[in-house]
Amino acid sequence: DCMNSQLSFATLVLRPICGLTSKVLIQRLQIVVACVTLAQMTGCGYTLGNGFSPDIKTVSVPTFENDTFRRGLEFQLTESVQKEIQNRTPYRLARGMDADTRLTGRIVQVRKDVLGENNNDDPRQLQFSIMVRVTWENLRTGEILAKQEVPVAPEAIPLLTQAGFAPELGQSQATATQIAIDQMARKIINMMETPW
Fold it and tell me: Using CA atoms, how far apart are residues 179 and 33, in angstroms rounded to an integer?
C-alpha cells in the first residue's frame, strides 16, 4: 500500500507512526517549523513588538536650547519631538522629575547654503541644515541612555538633517525649516530605540 507510486512524498513521510495519525503529525511538524523560524528570526536581529525599552514609561522633554542666532527654532523642534514621542513610542510625556527619563537637546548649528544660482547670481536652490546635540538620561539611575553630539572626536556621530528649497518654484525657507525640524525629530526618536 505504501509502495504505491501514486502516493505523495508527504503521505509517505507523514504516515501514521506509533499510533499517531497524519493530522497530528502535520500539526506537530507545523509547530516545529514555526519554532525554528521564530528562533532564526530572533537570531538575525528581528524582534517582536516595538524597539523601545519596556522599563521606561515616561519622558520629560524640556525646551531645547539654541546656540544659534535663529530664534524660535528651539520651540518648533521641542514641539515636533514631543509629537513624535506621542505618535511613535509607548512613552508618555511628563514634566520635570516626575518622569523616568529626560531628553535634552541643544541646537548647535543652523545653516542656509546656496546650492545653485541663476544668471543674475540670485539663489536658485538653497539648503537648510540643522545640527543638534541630544542627551537622553535615566532620571532614576543617572545613566545616559543615548547621546548624539557634534563631531568633536572622529568616533562621534553628528545628528544632522537637511531640507532643500527653491524660491523660484514658490518654496519658502519656512517650509524647508519645518521639513528639516520634522526630519530631526524623527532622527531623535530613532536614537531612543533599543539598539540590536
Answer: 45
DSSP 174: H
| H-type alpha helices, 114-194 | 173-192
Residue from 87, 70, 86, 103 nearest 176 by CA: 70
Q: Which residues of 77-106 are buried (b: 16+ CB within 10 A; e: fewer)?
A: bbebbeebbeebbebebbeeeebbbbbebb
pTM of the model: 0.67
Q: How far apart (Å, rounded) are the C-alpha atoms in residues 170 and 165?
A: 9
CA-nearest of 185, 123, 130 to 158 is: 130
State the sign of the Cα–Cα–Cα–Cα dihedral 33, 49, 141, 146. positive
pLDDT at 144: 85
Confidence (pLDDT) at 158? 46
Enter the C-alpha cell of residue 131. Answer: 545640527
Q: Which residue, 75, 163, 79, 169, is CA-closest to 118?
A: 169
* Blockwise average pLDDT, block size 10, the chain, 196 residues: 46 50 70 66 56 88 93 94 94 91 91 77 75 90 77 41 66 78 88 72
Query: What pLDDT was estimated at residue 21?
Result: 60
Backbone torsions φ then ψ of 137, nearest 5 degrees: -125, 150
